[in-house]
Amino acid sequence: MATSRWSTFLKRLNRSTDVLKDQTSRVLRMDGANSPSRVPIPLLNFRSPEDVQNLALGCDSDIGGTSSAKLDFVSDSNAPNGVGYGRLSGHMRLGVQSGLEGKLRSGYAGFRSKSRRTLFGELTDDISNHEFLALRLKVGGHPRTRNSYFVNLQTDAPVSGELWQHRLYFQRDDNSWENLFIPFSAFVLTSFGELTSGHTSIDGEQIRWVGISLLGGNAGVEGPFELGMDSIRAVNREDVTESLKPDPSAGTQWMRGPL
User: Fold this and answer.
1) Distance between CA 38 and CA 126 in Å, rounded?
2) Which helix (H) or strand (E) holds 58?
């Protein structure tokens, strides 16, 4: 127990040192006096076992559902980085454990980046000068699960259950890598799973975490699923390498209905 507490303290101390270095370099560079940087911001990489260990996994089985999910690192010289990639896989089921029928809603699995606490508070990302979320992914599993993925962002909001969300639309069905670009302006705000009104855009100055979820319960989708992940970044239009297609749903299943 003492070893675990010491390890946690050292991680926070290292992050705190990084924060001080970053703030000092910003002062020396006189950030704010020049034009805002448009350099892509890495939000999540999945290029080593350590990257995958920094993710938090969740599944309906945690509360009585029957789905399964796991995160692992796959060594693969054919991956975009030449080393390997992160993988979310499992089996989506809509049933619940005995005695919980009618008491909970099953059918979800996903992950998010872990909170990055320092001695000065939580470390966040500022994407306010960027227009798009760029994801390098490949989707496998049963075809009926492939259109049920969503990407989630949480800002430093007063309500912990509020998430900015957008459905992921994959164009390929051969389990090959593809780039997805989503305008931050297309994300919609949800609160504890319900669409909210009165919010038009993300306050991108403090992004706490990024994640991806598979929501089978919303569309009655079951089956094996697999998602390969290389990177998630905040970018601008000059970094978009694919032609942008019209968003068929304006964001989420609340706008579109079940597939």
Assistant:
1) 12
2) strand 55-59
Tell me what the pLDDT averaged over the chain comes to: 84
Q: 119 Cβ partners below 8 Å, 6+ apart? A: 12, 13, 16
pTM higher than the cut 0.85: no
Instruction: Determine the residue type at 135.
Output: L
What is the rounded distance in angstroms from the CA atom of residue 95 to the CA atom of residue 66?
A: 6
Give the amino acid at 62: D
Calculate ∠ Cα 217-220-226, nearest 5°: 75
- For 198-222, how does the pLDDT look when each residue is reduced to its tens digit (9 = 90+)? 766 888 899 999 999 999 997 899 9
Which position has the token pair 């992921």? Answer: 168
Give the residue from 61, 60, 109 showing the smallest Cα distance to 89: 109
102: which 2 tokens?
Answer: 């009618």
Nearest to 27 by CA among 39, 38, 19: 19
